[in-house]
Amino acid sequence: MGYGLYIGHGGPIVINPTAVIGNNCNLSQFITIGSNEEKAAIIGDNTYIGPNVCIVENVKIGNNVTIGAGSVVTKDIPDNATAVGNYAKVINYNNPGRYVNNRWNINS
Q1: Of these residues, 1, 3, 9, 87, which one is catalytic?
Q2: Does 9 qualify as catalytic in the annotation?
Q3: Which member of 20, 27, 46, 80 has the lowest number of beta carbons within 10 Å of its beta carbon?
Q4: What pLDDT, on a 0 to 100 scale, did the predictor assign at position 93?
Protein backbone atom coordinates (compact mmCIF):
# COMPACT_ATOMS: atom_id res chain seq x y z
CA MET A 1 0.00 0.00 0.00
CA GLY A 2 1.23 3.42 -0.90
CA TYR A 3 1.12 6.70 0.98
CA GLY A 4 -2.13 8.53 1.52
CA LEU A 5 -4.51 5.56 1.79
CA TYR A 6 -7.91 6.92 2.77
CA ILE A 7 -10.82 4.83 4.05
CA GLY A 8 -13.87 7.07 3.92
CA HIS A 9 -16.36 5.02 5.90
CA GLY A 10 -16.40 2.15 8.32
CA GLY A 11 -17.57 -1.21 7.11
CA PRO A 12 -16.04 -4.36 5.76
CA ILE A 13 -13.15 -4.05 3.33
CA VAL A 14 -11.49 -7.22 2.07
CA ILE A 15 -8.05 -6.95 0.44
CA ASN A 16 -6.10 -9.96 -0.75
CA PRO A 17 -2.51 -9.82 0.57
CA THR A 18 -1.12 -10.00 -2.99
CA ALA A 19 -2.87 -6.75 -4.01
CA VAL A 20 -0.67 -3.75 -4.83
CA ILE A 21 -2.21 -0.35 -4.05
CA GLY A 22 -0.60 2.93 -5.13
CA ASN A 23 -0.48 6.34 -3.47
CA ASN A 24 -3.62 8.32 -2.60
CA CYS A 25 -6.12 5.52 -3.01
CA ASN A 26 -9.58 6.18 -1.55
CA LEU A 27 -11.46 3.05 -0.50
CA SER A 28 -15.18 3.10 0.27
CA GLN A 29 -17.18 0.65 2.38
CA PHE A 30 -17.99 -2.95 1.40
CA ILE A 31 -15.27 -3.37 -1.23
CA THR A 32 -13.40 -6.53 -2.13
CA ILE A 33 -10.04 -6.70 -3.88
CA GLY A 34 -9.65 -10.42 -4.24
CA SER A 35 -8.27 -13.40 -6.09
CA ASN A 36 -8.99 -17.11 -6.11
CA GLU A 37 -6.21 -18.26 -8.40
CA GLU A 38 -3.32 -15.88 -9.01
CA LYS A 39 -2.34 -12.49 -7.72
CA ALA A 40 -4.88 -9.81 -6.93
CA ALA A 41 -5.16 -6.40 -8.61
CA ILE A 42 -2.53 -3.75 -9.12
CA ILE A 43 -4.11 -0.36 -8.43
CA GLY A 44 -2.44 2.88 -9.52
CA ASP A 45 -2.10 6.26 -7.82
CA ASN A 46 -4.95 8.74 -7.17
CA THR A 47 -7.71 6.17 -7.48
CA TYR A 48 -11.22 6.33 -6.01
CA ILE A 49 -13.04 3.04 -5.49
CA GLY A 50 -16.73 3.49 -4.69
CA PRO A 51 -18.90 1.49 -2.29
CA ASN A 52 -19.72 -2.18 -2.97
CA VAL A 53 -17.04 -2.58 -5.66
CA CYS A 54 -15.51 -6.00 -6.37
CA ILE A 55 -12.15 -6.12 -8.12
CA VAL A 56 -11.53 -9.68 -9.19
CA GLU A 57 -8.23 -11.41 -10.02
CA ASN A 58 -5.08 -9.97 -11.56
CA VAL A 59 -6.36 -6.79 -13.24
CA LYS A 60 -4.48 -3.53 -13.62
CA ILE A 61 -6.19 -0.30 -12.67
CA GLY A 62 -4.37 2.78 -13.93
CA ASN A 63 -3.58 6.11 -12.30
CA ASN A 64 -6.27 8.77 -11.75
CA VAL A 65 -9.16 6.31 -12.02
CA THR A 66 -12.67 6.46 -10.57
CA ILE A 67 -14.63 3.23 -10.17
CA GLY A 68 -18.34 3.79 -9.56
CA ALA A 69 -20.42 2.20 -6.82
CA GLY A 70 -21.44 -1.41 -7.25
CA SER A 71 -19.03 -2.10 -10.11
CA VAL A 72 -17.49 -5.50 -10.74
CA VAL A 73 -14.03 -5.09 -12.28
CA THR A 74 -12.77 -8.10 -14.22
CA LYS A 75 -10.65 -6.36 -16.89
CA ASP A 76 -7.93 -3.72 -16.90
CA ILE A 77 -8.93 -0.06 -16.62
CA PRO A 78 -6.62 2.50 -18.32
CA ASP A 79 -5.21 5.68 -16.80
CA ASN A 80 -7.51 8.69 -16.42
CA ALA A 81 -10.75 6.75 -16.83
CA THR A 82 -14.07 6.50 -15.04
CA ALA A 83 -15.53 2.98 -15.09
CA VAL A 84 -18.90 1.72 -13.86
CA GLY A 85 -21.19 -1.27 -14.09
CA ASN A 86 -21.34 -5.00 -13.82
CA TYR A 87 -19.04 -5.80 -15.59
CA ALA A 88 -17.24 -2.46 -15.33
CA LYS A 89 -16.74 -0.50 -18.55
CA VAL A 90 -15.04 2.83 -19.15
CA ILE A 91 -17.71 5.48 -19.65
CA ASN A 92 -15.54 8.59 -19.98
CA TYR A 93 -12.23 10.30 -19.36
CA ASN A 94 -13.74 13.47 -17.80
CA ASN A 95 -12.03 14.42 -14.53
CA PRO A 96 -11.41 10.95 -13.09
CA GLY A 97 -9.97 10.73 -9.60
CA ARG A 98 -11.83 13.90 -8.62
CA TYR A 99 -12.93 12.33 -5.34
CA VAL A 100 -9.35 11.89 -4.14
CA ASN A 101 -9.32 14.96 -1.91
CA ASN A 102 -6.73 14.13 0.74
CA ARG A 103 -3.66 13.53 -1.40
CA TRP A 104 -0.38 12.72 0.24
CA ASN A 105 2.47 14.75 -1.25
CA ILE A 106 5.62 12.63 -1.18
CA ASN A 107 7.81 15.69 -1.72
CA SER A 108 6.59 17.46 1.42
Answers
A1: 9
A2: yes
A3: 20
A4: 86
